[in-house]
Amino acid sequence: MEVGIIGLPRSGKTTLFNAITKGKASVDVYSDKANVGVAKVPDERLIRLAKIYNPRRLVNAEIAYTDVPPPPEGFGRTRGIGGEYLNLLQAVDALLIVVRCFNNPAVAHVDETIDYLRDAGNMLMELIISDMEIIERRITRIQVENKGATLQERQNLKNEENLLMTIKKNLDMGIGLRDQGLSDDEIKRLGGFGLLSMKPVIVVSNIGEDQLDMVEQLNQNLWETINSQNMATLALCAQLEMDLAQMDANDEIDFRRSFGIKESSLERMVKTSYGVVGLIAFFTVGEDEVRAWEIKSNTKAQKAAGKIHSDLERGFIRAEVIAYDDLVANGNLVEAKKKGLVRQEGKQYVVQDGDIMHVLFNV
């Protein structure tokens, strides 16, 4: 999965990027270059499986984060998002919007006052405006293409235009695509447009250390203000999380306890990202490697096999499947098989979170 991080200047988005990826990107100097980092997805189930198989390699699933630089004039000015910035955001699976909640007189806010609810609304509107521009260009193109089209082509273009006009009307009212009640077929038809307000979104309010005891209330206020389909909200202190991420693991645990923070920003972000995008994990195991694979929920076995290797999807015969809890409870696969807990599943089987799969194939 790939996540694009955006936010107003001095919102702390690069600080959050460093906290999640354990990166060392500069937070003091404006850069027009994107920061790219990869975070391994923490999963205690992998550790348990490793104790059973003692593999040579343990491979976590990964999330790639791209810290997208704001244009020189900044995001959030109701200009929409275009050019190279738009290209970067169109390529990701989800968007992470950072809004400033902390108060630091030494770091001026671009709009002078601190209002994270206002900033969140402005950033979400940027996505809508960018989509409006894309839709308007396509409607204009349809009108040109219609002139030399056949009767059937004209009908297809008319159907597309009707859909786009309805979408545009809703966008004009500030309704993003994720809240327009589009059918699966309509979503599929729009798949090539790279529309931003259709993407899953996580809005993170970046708080100060003096606001740690207000996390739940601040997050609740944010959610009530901007709640939407395929959207989630989080409140965390990016500066503190970045400092903790750079510590020795044992020291980090001690400091987290002293602040009353149970989970790292990465752990919270992974859970939130998986939830908003609709991802689950399945596992492959053996003495050579124990590995986690991320897939969309409701993915069928043959398609999931392709995540491992295209040959497995192409030549899929069946999959031997056991639930993680069943394997761990029995200590090993041999004992689990004796109890009939290993199932033979076909192409149409819908993979469940925590499934352990061995794919049989022939190419």
Task: Identify the notable features of this structure and list them briefly.
alpha/beta, Rossmann fold, Ubiquitin-like (UB roll), 3 domains, six-stranded mixed sheet, 14 helices, flat
Secondary structure class reads: alpha/beta
- CA-based shape: flat
- Overall domain count: 3
CATH architecture of the largest domain: 3-Layer(aba) Sandwich
Strand content: 15-25%
SSE layout:
Layout: E1 2-7, H1 13-21, E2 35-40, H2 44-53, E3 57-59, E4 62-67, H3 83-90, E5 94-100, H4 116-145, H5 151-172, H6 184-189, E6 201-206, H7 215-226, E7 231-236, H8 238-245, H9 249-259, H10 265-277, E8 279-284, E9 289-296, H11 301-308, H12 310-314, E10 316-323, H13 324-330, H14 333-338, E11 343-345, E12 355-361
Parallel strand pairs: 1-4, 1-5, 3-9, 5-6, 6-7
Antiparallel strand pairs: 2-4, 8-9, 10-11, 10-12
Structural commentary:
By secondary structure, this protein is α/β, with parallel strands linked by helices. It folds into three domains: 2-43 and 60-115 and 199-276, Rossmann fold (3-Layer(aba) Sandwich), CATH 3.40.50.300; 127-196, DNA polymerase, domain 1 (Orthogonal Bundle); 298-361, Ubiquitin-like (UB roll). It is built from 14 helices and twelve strands. The strands form three sheets. Strands 2-4-1-5-6-7 form a six-stranded mixed beta sheet, with helices on both faces. Strands 3-9-8 form a three-stranded mixed beta sheet, with helices on both faces. It has a three-stranded antiparallel beta sheet with strand order 11-10-12. Strand 8 (279-284) and strand 9 form a beta hairpin. Helix 1 (13-21) runs parallel beside helix 8 and helix 4 runs parallel beside helix 7. The longest helix has 30 residues, at 116-145. It is flat, with a radius of gyration of 23 Å. The model has no long low-confidence stretch (mean pLDDT 91).
